[in-house]
Amino acid sequence: MRNTKAFKEAVAQTLAELAHRGVTLAPATVADTIEKNISTVSERLGIQVRSAWRYFDASAMADSLARSVQSYEESSSEKGVGEAPMPPLDNPELALVLAGVPDSLAQTGGDLYAVIINVAVTAWMAGHIHGEDGCTGCDGSRGPAGHDWETRMRTITEMQPNITKWFDRDVWTAAVNDSGFTVTRR
Q1: Measured between alpha carbons, how far is 116 from 137 in angstroms, rounded to an integer?
Q2: In b/e form, how buried is each residue of 133-150, taking b as 16+ CB within 10 angstroms?
Q3: How far apart are CA 59 and CA 23, in angstroms?
């Protein structure tokens, strides 16, 4: 279904309609939703997929998606969901995570997936150590500082004395470029 002209046009039209409504969604999300809806219409009406396209309306689809996005945002903001707490910008562990991205790009040959996994695991471990100081499964896993968060932050700062440079977007971008890679939009 996805390789048909009708499908590609439906995705493009729906994305354009969403843009008119000020809603931004990933094209893959829109494509998945359209595919699911067309398949459902085909199955419920007992018709072929190509015949189900006559029931497709990009404007109605965009309205439905926009309502879903708005509903999600409203329900999330009411419950305080959707935004992770940010550590202070001078946090040593955050600096290490940022500093590790250019090195990870170089080590993986530009494998962005591997870089993201590395960052996610490192960030999770940083949150884990901060939030679960008494985790018995992690005893001895954090070196001499153990689970003492303050000692850990001091140790990191001693290892990496100029941590604030990693919070400068230009310095970070230059480090990424020095690794031989760039992140650009297609």
Answers
A1: 25
A2: eeeeeeeeebeeeebebe
A3: 13
Give the number of C-alpha atoms closer than 13 A to the C-alpha of residue 55, restricted to the C-beta side: 16
**Tokens standing for residue 140:** 């001895």
pLDDT tens for each residue of 94-144:
777 787 888 888 888 888 888 888 888 777 666 554 444 445 555 555 555
Residue the block writes with tokens 């960030």 = 123
Q: Could you give phi then psi for residue 15, rounded to 5 degrees?
A: -60, -40
Supply the angle between the helices 149-159 and 112-131 in degrees, to the nearest 10.
140
pLDDT at 33: 93
Closest by Cα among 76, 77, 70 to 25: 70
Contacts of 75 (CB under 8 A, 6+ apart): 81
Q: Note the pLDDT of residue 142.
A: 53
pLDDT tens digits, 53-93: 999 999 999 999 999 888 877 776 555 554 555 666 677 77
> Max CA-CA distance within the chain?
69
Report long-range pairs for 3-6 (Cβ below 8 Å, ≥24 apart).
4/50, 6/50, 6/53, 6/56
Give the containing element (helix H, strand E) for 116.
Answer: helix 112-131
